[in-house]
Specification:
Elements (H helix, E strand, L loop, with lengths): L1 H5 L10 H8 L6 E5 L5 H4 L6 E6 L2 H16 L2 H8 L6 H12 L4 H9 L1 H5 L7 H16 L1 H7 L5 H12 L2 H10 L2 H8 L12 H13 L8 H8 L13 H8 L5 E5 L2 H7 L5 E5 L9 H14 E11 L14 E3 L1 H10 L6 E7 L2
Parallel strand pairs: 1-2, 1-4, 2-3, 4-5
Antiparallel strand pairs: 5-7, 6-7
Bound molecules: S-adenosylmethionine (SAM).
The site of S-adenosylmethionine has 22 residues, from strand 2 and helix 17.
């Protein structure tokens, strides 16, 4: 656990921002609480809420968000994209841009980036533990089946991709490599992210492989950022979140002063918040890190700190905590929407707890 809490674990895009947009319907007047992760709260600024509080228990995730905010404020899009590593640049150029940005940071973020200049130099979007692990997996994949992966990303016609995936993709050798790479042993000792093993209720390798297969039958590989990250080791140009597009950043930049960055435990934060503080909750897959007892504390916190009529969206990755019956009338789930979002999410390996706070 300790290694996880002292490093940058998520640095690019691990969730499909459209899902939270559909689930939460954020708009003017909203007060949003969002898990920070790799910068996901920035996308929630797009529809113009009054306030977004970004919270993460890991200081490096807050430091990343401070870096992204400072870069978005100071740089025009082309420089911002190359500084983060979305487009090419040099270490020296990124270092030259970093120095004046550091002045705007809080002491913790400044100390973090002073000590981790090399992450910025290589392009910070590539620097998370998750990104490095899956880039390694993608290298392995391209080593054992270079032709098939090239072909998969060449399809522009979904029916042709479907036929290829049904007939040629899911071989015994591929299943074996995938399931070893995503075995509990490798995940625990190489990746070291508790989300992948601490409370996993399903077998990671098989689960991710089967979900990816379903996704490849419904979305072109080249239009899916997650398939691209895990099989090519890079983001898909045609499937970027607003915070990484020219148009998106133009709108988000104007709203950066509505963002507050907090480092801390989301449950403690909710328990200390006044009733009705938030109207929207974007809680990523925090249950991946929680026992059943703490999962219920999280839900109690949402019910307490949430305004009547508010909305919540929680992702479930490998854990399957039980939703307590006693809260069913307070946090009113929307099963049809949950199923639709799970089907459509380009990050394909999530189930959802989505709904409205009774009022
Ligand atoms: C799986 S990650 C989300 C990353 C994400 N998929 C993305 O797109 O960036 C979940 C995040 O929740 C944070 N986290 C876990 N437990 C937490 C807690 N109790 N309070 C606040 N943040 C927590 C982790 O540090 C991590 O950054």
């Amino acid at each position: 656990m300790s290694r996880f809490f002292s490093t940058l674990n998520y640095s690019s895009v691990n969730e499909d921002w459209r899902t939270e947009a559909r689930a939460l319907e954020v708009g003017p007047g909203d007060r949003v609480l969002a898990i920070t992760g790799g910068g996901r709260p920035l996308d929630l600024l797009l529809p113009g809420p009054d306030r977004v509080v970004a919270i993460d228990a890991v200081p490096a995730q807050s430091a990343l968000l401070e870096l992204e905010v400072a870069a978005m404020r100071a740089l025009h899009f082309d420089a911002y994209a190359s500084f983060l590593g979305l487009t090419p640049s040099s270490r020296a150029e990124r270092g030259r841009i970093l120095d004046p940005l550091l002045a705007a940071f809080g002491p913790e973020a400044r100390a973090f980036w002073d000590a981790h200049r090399s992450l910025v130099g290589r392009g910070v979007l590539r620097g998370g533990r998750w990104e490095r692990f899956f880039r390694m997996g993608s290298l392995l994949g391209r080593l054992v089946r270079p032709g098939k992966i090239r072909r998969l990303f060449a399809f522009e016609d979904l029916d042709a991709q479907r036929a290829f995936v049904r007939e040629r993709w899911d071989t015994a050798g591929w299943r074996w490599i995938n399931d070893v790479f995503l075995s509990r042993l490798v995940l625990r000792h190489v990746l070291g992210d508790p989300a992948f093993h601490a409370h996993a209720a399903v077998e990671p390798g098989r689960f991710v492989r089967e979900r990816m297969q379903e996704s490849l039958l419904s979305v072109l590989a080249r239009d899916n950022f997650m398939v691209s990250l895990t099989l090519r080791g890079r983001l898909a140009e045609r499937d970027l979140p607003p915070r990484l597009t020219r148009q998106g950043t133009a709108a988000i930049r104007k709203r950066l002063d509505r963002l507050e960055i907090v480092t801390g435990d989301v449950i403690a934060h909710l328990e200390a918040a006044a009733p009705g503080t938030y109207t929207r909750f974007s809680l990523s897959d925090v249950p991946s890190y929680l026992s059943q007892e703490d999962f219920e504390r999280l839900l109690d916190g949402v019910a307490r700190a949430g305004a009547p009529g508010g909305r919540f969206c929680i992702r479930l990755f490998l854990s399957r905590p039980r939703f307590p019956e006693r809260l069913a009338g307070v946090l009113v789930r929307e099963p049809d929407l949950e199923r639709r979002l799970a089907r459509e999410d380009h990050a394909f390996a999530y189930d959802f707890i989505v709904g409205r706070i009774a009022g």
